[in-house]
Amino acid sequence: MSVQQGELNFFASDVAAGKGYVVGVDEVGRGPLVGDVVAAAVILPENCALPLKDSKALSDTKRNRLTKQIKAEALDFCIARATPQEIDELNILHATMLAMQRAVDGLKLPIEKVLVDGNRCPDIPHPCEAIVKGDGKVAEISAASILAKVHRDEQMLALHERYPQYGFDSHKATRPSFIWKISRAWFDPGVSPFF
Asked: How far apart are the C-alpha atoms of 88 and 193, rounded to whole Å?
């Protein structure tokens, strides 16, 4: 399991008063054929003014810039993953829920409620609400969407360095052209498979 956690960025009076925080959670990597499913959990400050929206509606440049800003301004965040082996063992739905659990468990601040993008909540010991298209409605979920997307894209770029013939830098293992390249690897001894 790999987890990336943020530095705490909060006022001690909030915690001392017993105040819990609202957490946004989203994932990326359920559709691709290669790589981890990545989830992020984010707690934002009350008056966060970042121009957040669904990560799919942002360019790579804007996502990368917002990732730095989110990490700097978030009160707490955690990025976690479930591996391809876990996906194979559990199935993609359960592996996604596991990545979300890990992201929430990696937070250090007290939690009042968790808001998850989609129609299912992971098995966590906190009140949780699933919000369909939440990444376009709730700032905390949007922030989680952006962190998860950028983190997974970075993994795909690293994979591209090792296996440039598959074009992970451009399609992130999601496009039909990738499926064609994979099928070619099975039948062409000149193409190196990576799995």
From this structure: 18
Q: How far is CA 88 from CA 41, 62, 97, 102, 120, in A?
A: 24, 33, 14, 18, 20
Q: Which domains does the chain have, with CATH numbers?
A: 3-164 (3.30.420.10)
Closest CA to 43 of 5, 98, 82: 5
pLDDT digits (tens, 9 = 90+) for 147-191: 999 999 999 899 889 988 877 887 665 555 555 555 555 555 555
Residue that the structure tokens 């970042």 belong to:
50
Q: What is the pTM of this model?
A: 0.82
160: which 2 tokens?
Answer: 């591209």
Angle at 18 between CA 13 and CA 23, to 5 degrees: 95
